[in-house]
What does this fold into?
Amino acid sequence: KVGMYAYIQRHPKIVRDALNVLRATIQAAAPQAEATIRYQIPTFQHHGNLVHFAAWKTHLGFYPASSGIGQFAEELAPYETSRGTVKFPLDRPLPLRLITRMVKFRVKENEARAREKSRPRSRPAVWK
It folds into this structure.
């Protein structure tokens, strides 16, 4: 099983450096999240999948779920996006403040979902 650091190490230096900056930025924004590999790419989990990222030939893929893309659509306008993906070109600096805000948004979203799931369900009144 390949770990996150092994995944990062197998890339060329320029890509590896960008991946390490992205990893550190996510980790700083969500220190409680667990770093792992899911779907064969680096993933941070906190009450489920938080964000994923991956290296491609010309960009880093960042996967903050469709809610993360929707919430920050205006600020993501300079980047190519799809339903749950944003592509950060390797020849441009990473928008670290935006990434931090997106990760923190996903933490709050996952924590709210976890709270909702753990709430006791109300039981219907029993008719006599």
Notes: The mean pLDDT is 92.
